[in-house]
Amino acid sequence: xxxxxxxxxxxxxxxxxxxxxxxxxxxxxxxxxxxxxxxxxxxxxxxxxxxxxxxxxxxxxxxxxxxxxxxxxxxxxxxxxxxxxxxxxxxxxxxxxxxxxxxxxxxxxxxxxxxxxxxxxxxxxxxxxxxxxxxxxxxxxxxxxxxxxxxxxxxxxxxxxxxxxxxxxxxxxxxxxxxxxxxxxxxxxxxxxxxxxxxxxxxxxxxxxxxxxxxxxxxxxxxxxxxxxxxxxxxxxxxxxxxxxxxxxxxxxxxxxxxxxxxxxxxxxxxxxxxxxxxxxxxxxxxxxxxxxxxxxxxxxxxxxxxxxxxxxxxxxxxxxxxxxxxxxxxxxxxxxxxxxxxxxxxxxxxxxxxxxxxxxxxxxxxxxxxxxxxxxxxxxxxxxxxxxxxxxxxxxxxxxxxxxxxxxxxxxxxxxxxxxxxxxxxxxxxxxxxxxxxxxxxxxxxxxxxxxxxxxxxxxxxxxxxxxxxxxxxxxxxxxxxxxxxxxxxxxxxxxxxxxxxx
Length: 504
What we know:
Layout (H helix, E strand, L loop, with lengths): L1 E3 L10 E2 L6 E2 L8 H7 L9 E7 L4 E4 L3 E3 L6 H11 L7 E8 L7 E11 L5 E14 L3 H7 L6 E6 L6 H13 L5 E7 L2 E6 L2 H14 L2 E13 L4 E12 L7 E3 L2 H6 L6 E7 L3 E4 L6 E4 L1 H6 L12 E10 L19 E7 L9 E5 L10 E6 L8 H5 L8 E6 L3 H6 L3 E2 L6 E2 L6 H14 L1 H4 L4 E3 L23 E2 L19
Parallel strand pairs: 4-9, 10-14, 11-25, 26-27
Antiparallel strand pairs: 1-9, 2-3, 4-5, 5-6, 7-8, 8-9, 10-12, 11-12, 13-14, 15-16, 16-17, 17-18, 19-20, 19-22, 20-21, 22-23, 24-26
């Protein structure tokens, strides 16, 4: 305890304390600090021990009346929460400073040193420092109560896509992680043809639905089930279900459009390749390089489906290639792609190298293919495709082979890949053995498509050193170092043990 007084402008002599007679500098109370302490206690009425409620399950603190906050130890948020506990008793004093004192991590105690000032006798300003001890008391929050009661969710968003490949789900997972929408979920459950997001409130579920509708082409249905009804207060308790169906088209799928839709998209060919799926379906005509985008509402009015699955991709070798320049399009033609080059190629299956069978086709990969390159494509000449619009087309307009992408050595690409992606924590029902291959396909798509990478957070993998080879001159696309982020790991303010302080 000490006096706070302005410095004297001229030298003054000492006076005697009116109580004990000790010489002291002049002050409004004419008393020394020891005597003033016996007369006045400015911290009177401020509690020296306070209880703070803490939930062990979700590691949050209760801020009365009903708010639960996530606060790290010795953080500004925890300091503000503790000060609010004693704020009502500090209306007659002025707070000068507050800070934490070190306590044992397992003591269930938080000590805070508080400095206050108050005007006392005859206008003297007295400053005092004291310690307030906050006792941690365990209390389960309402959210954790519902989890333990197995009745924890209020709304569920069921995302489904009727396809074999999960490329769209992998892309959607990265967008959710980037915008941190998974933080509001109570549980994430992955099933065979989709994924379910469980939420504790209907507002969070509606936010997820709005995000999905802006991110991927889809349509939604809403239903709710009555759980309980209070006839006295006329309140109803519902569980809501949002069913989201994503269009069944993935990247690298070959589709056949209806004649009416193809005409509305600039008289492009009916047989097209899907080069990307974002908020719209990006299509390209391999015969003319015309491109078009189909949104969700247009798709559901004029639906079309994939003609082949990724498992039906076959490997071809380029025997001859010829770039097509200055091609003239018909009247009413749409926009052409500037990123691709139209070419006519002769290809041969790697499985038929002992024969003389070759296939002729047009492709949009003229800027990538050279004689001797490996390329993946669909063989329509030797396949039986059951599609409504394809069966009605003139057989001469149906291509023998549709090339999709250039083929590179996957083992080399995996060895020199020095980046990684984050994943959501979720429950898996059945793990498909094909999931790892599909995930590798998605990583390769990110390397090949720069526009797709702009929406994804890519992190540098510090534990993996890329392997370079002198013979690796195939020119496979790679992710530049400038596009990678450093993975950030946050530790508690008290060190490594701080995170376990309240969990024992």
